[in-house]
Amino acid sequence: MKTVSLGASRPSAVSFRMPTRDNLVPIRVDVEVDGQRYRDAFTWNPRDPDSEIISFAKRTAKDLKLPATFVPPMLQSIQGQLAEFRSYEGQEMQIKEKIVPLKIDLRVNNTVIRDQFLWDIGNLDSDPEEFARTLCDDLNIADPEVGPAIAVSIREQLYEIASQSVSIMREKVSKKRRAPEFSSNSKAVNNAVDLFKYFGSKGSVVRKRKEWYLFEPVIDVIRNEEAGADAKEELNSSSRPKKRLDEVKDASL
């Protein structure tokens, strides 16, 4: 049984970034034009030039045979999310030795997956993409789109926590005194579990047997006829171009 020593360590302030190995931004696009709808989720390197966004939007519209009128709202959505992320850059966020529970509740094509697990946001070498691939292998999930969807969901929750931590630091700086206890409507932040409080001064990261059922993944496969009814209401993006991790890794922080 692996144990960890959880002394009362002070939070450390670092420059804002995703609390993962690769500084990739989760992007979610949902655009509807003249009754047609395009939805997608992917990651983007914030250091890529904006010209890449234009090329991506045009290529996506062409590959999916979407009208050119889709390109401007796609651009606006992606650029807006990147601008928000970049607005945090250069500011301090507080990284504390803390474990947070993350939850996955997704439907990708015919696969529905629900799961929850603990994530160490103090580990800046963590890799959501690798975790998602391993999870899919362990659960024998064959659909290649499920892994990327899981990784994006994880990154969205970690991004929310990281951006909220910037708010904590801003409050401390502006008031120049001990900040009051931070409260948020964010489920990810409010579910954070301080290691010291959760495990005590001496504890184990191994889950207790009575808690196993809480962390057991649930996988459902939807029948084709059921999936077909839903497919009529949205675009089939199974052949959509993707911003793959290996395309951006070399330029990531």
UniProtKB/TrEMBL annotation:
Major subcellular site: nucleus
Q: Where is the composition biased (Basic and acidic residues)?
A: 244-253
What are its GO cellular component terms?
Answer: nuclear chromosome
What keywords would UniProt list here?
Nucleus, Transcription, Transcription regulation
Q: Which GO terms describe its biological process?
A: chromatin remodeling
InterPro entries for this protein: SNF5 (IPR006939)
Q: Where in the cell is it found?
A: Nucleus
Which positions make up the signal peptide? none
Superkingdom of source: Eukaryota
Q: Where is this region: Disordered?
A: 230-253
What family is reported? Belongs to the SNF5 family.
* Protein name in UniProt: Chromatin structure-remodeling complex protein BSH
